[in-house]
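Standup notes
- HV: blocked on the assembly model, inputs below
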Amino acid sequence: MIKKISFIGSGNVASVFAEKFSSVNIDVINIISRNQKTGKELAQKVNAKYYKSIRKLDECDMIFICTNDDNIVKISEELPDVLVAHTSGNTSISSIKGKKRKAVIYPIQSLSKNEKVSFNEIPFCIEASDLETKAKIHELLSKISKNIHTINSSERKLIHMSAVIVSNFSNFCYIMGYEILKEKNISFDLLKPLIQHTAEKNLNREPKKNLTGPAARKDFKTIKEHLALIDNKNYKKIYKIISKTIIDKYEK
Amino acid sequence: MIKKISFIGSGNVASVFAEKFSSVNIDVINIISRNQKTGKELAQKVNAKYYKSIRKLDECDMIFICTNDDNIVKISEELPDVLVAHTSGNTSISSIKGKKRKAVIYPIQSLSKNEKVSFNEIPFCIEASDLETKAKIHELLSKISKNIHTINSSERKLIHMSAVIVSNFSNFCYIMGYEILKEKNISFDLLKPLIQHTAEKNLNREPKKNLTGPAARKDFKTIKEHLALIDNKNYKKIYKIISKTIIDKYEK
């Protein structure tokens, strides 16, 4: 059973995980971070020891690498041969080097230090080097979530990409709407009930069935008028290609 | 005071409005619709008379045109000279022809017959030909919403366009995510908490501050890997132009 864990990193993912595990009586032993300020802060919160260098690591059952994707290979090479996991959606489990037991624990949610999310609802993708490790990971995670899925590295990459599309790209749609209105001093508040309702509809019904608007009904006149209203060149391109894709897609 | 109203149209907007007004004791006199089936159904629900032809209209204080945008001019020409309103976001008030008193009542929400939305939260944009008409419209609407805004035709067009972008386009992002996962038999349920959380974050904080992901952090390696994973040519274009726009926008 995994009882003592340590973290490399003190950013959003490390912070959210460390605090959550600490709250369910898993001992957080070390926080290792190049950033002394956030590293020390997090260590204090979870009653762990902060070190700047990996070489100082104390004994533990498992180490989480919660750094930029690009650093995972290098950091894993420097770690002792205990169970090592990373939390990246787009990084293969094989990026963890020279360990007998490895795992990936990827939360499908954008985690942020200063924001509460309901942990029980976060879907977790897990992958492990062997069945025994998988069982251990599953047991550990089940203390914080009821929504655990075994997903291999190539599936996880697709999930990560889809997450970028449904989350970051829809967020960018909100940014475009915000800016178009702001230029004319119109409040973004007017769009908030619509944003919320659009997201909610897709929780209960296949997204295709919820699509409305000028492109879905091939209302070329409105599309043309909208395009004439958009000044920003890139926003115009985005409006055009999404509308065109919808029109082509639902052509009869 | 407006006490007796009639509707041209029996689609989603006409249905939702007629039922809502009827529920607050406004008399719905006529439902006029080329579609006999939905016209009669709606008339029965709100205890109104159904006619196929506009020429049969009974006396009333106000007529709502809830048809396709393209038909507003022609229909308004055939109506008697009472207060006439349309409900279109993208159509000028001047499309209502030959009436002394005209108005626009545009709800910023996608309304659907078979779906409950909380009316009190729907923002309504109103515009009227004169102050007296505006006061009457406001009084009528205040029976069903507390969120009423005076918005002229050119502002309303911008709001309508922004609504298309934040709602239809984000919905299309959900469609892309759904399809990419479906092709590999991965459940869209995995993305639902993220979709909901992304929308909710933007209710409380300016959208720009909520943007995360590979483009926002200029992670070109991940963007390249994602592009290599997308088969659909149009989806690839959409991924590229949105990422490029984000990268250009937040260039430092």
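- HV (later): unblocked. Chain A touches chain B through 85 residues (CB under 8 Å). Residues 153-182 of chain A form the longest helix (30 residues).
- Next: hand off to the docking folks.
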